[in-house]
Design goal:
mainly beta, globular, two-stranded antiparallel ribbon, 175 residues, Pnp Oxidase, Chain A, 37% strand
Length: 175
């Protein structure tokens, strides 16, 4: 058997070994009525009974977090690999400083239950009510419960995964 060589990984980059989940656009609405969306890469299913629950890590200083705290709801949309450049654009500025939907002419539909906008062309989305927020240190872990969900038949083949920086990938066929 060939000897494997392992390289050290800087501890501040070790998260990239774990970050295999699909990227989400967290779509919200502010108390002032501005719709927003923010790409979030640190996401995870939390439970599936009686319904799907999810969690994601969010910076408490971001407009998205503030909107969720105020509105108690959000939409978790799954951008596709074709939307990678738009993901990078929407993650480059705060929703407090501009209307991202107008800035990049993002076509959208409205949530069926949650008052937020879903970008057209996503692989699917979950409309969620806020369950809990945990504050371990400088981050917030947001837990939500799905109250509606929609997806393309081949959504698993289209979702965008983020490792770090501008390093993305898309999965092959789901086994």
């Amino acid at each position: 058997m060939e000897e494997l060589r392992y390289n050290p990984v800087p501890l501040e980059k070790a998260y990239s070994l774990l970050n295999g989940g699909g990227l989400l656009w967290i779509c919200t609405k502010s108390k002032h009525g501005r719709y927003d969306l923010a790409p979030i890469a640190w996401t995870c299913p939390l439970d599936y009974e009686p319904v799907t629950r999810l969690l994601f890590v969010c910076d408490p200083g971001h407009a998205t977090f503030e909107n969720i705290v105020q509105q108690k709801e959000f939409i978790a949309a799954l951008p596709t690999y074709k939307q990678k450049s738009l993901v990078l654009q929407t993650g480059s500025v705060s929703g407090r400083s501009l209307d991202k939907f107008a800035q990049w002419d993002i076509l959208y539909s409205k949530g069926t239950v949650v008052d937020a906008l879903v970008p057209k062309g996503v692989a699917g989305w979950l409309e969620c009510k806020l369950l809990e927020i945990y504050r371990p240190g400088s981050v917030a872990i947001v837990c939500g419960e799905s109250i509606a969900a929609f997806a393309l038949p081949d959504a698993w083949k289209q979702v965008l995964h983020h490792v770090e920086g501008e390093h993305f990938y898309r999965p092959g066929d789901r086994v």
